[in-house]
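User: My collaborator sent over this chain with a note saying "see what the structure looks like." That's all I know about it. Can you take a look?
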Amino acid sequence: MMSARVGIAPTLKRAAFYSKHARNVALRSAVVSRGIQTESLPPSASQEILNQQRLKRPSSPHFTIYQPQLTWLASIANRATGGALSALLYGFSLAYLFAPGTFDSAHIIEFIAGLPEYVKYAGKFLLAAPFAFHSLNGLRHLAWDTGKFLSLKSAYRTGYAVLGATAISTIALVLM
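Assistant: Without extra context I'll predict from the sequence alone. Here is the result:
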């Protein structure tokens, strides 16, 4: 019986066999009570208490203490390239919306034609590399959504395949 293990069996027996008044006294003696002190604080003190509690908390491990792994580096790179490509697309779209005469195709082609060759290749590389990586890593994620390549070994294998295909397709896009 659980009450025997806790040590309140005699109290429960007394409460069962005595009158209602004696039962209440017996049960009250079995319950341990302790006094609680409360203190009224101004609302501004809550922020100070919270800051003191935060100082006492242990800091969780930061990612800089971990060995870099292909899986989380590819995840970060996928998010960064997606955000950069989106910002570029929305930025150009807004520029074309507010100044359609300045950002039309004829003016852009004329501007790029006047640039030196190394700037053109650098610009192509800066556009092609994130586009190729994000596209190919998106195909990798679609494969994961179908339930394929989910083991650790195949995740690394597909990660290296994405990196290799990104390098090849970036070179091909730059040389076009």
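A starting point for your reply to your collaborator: The CA atoms of residues 34 and 95 lie 70 Å apart.
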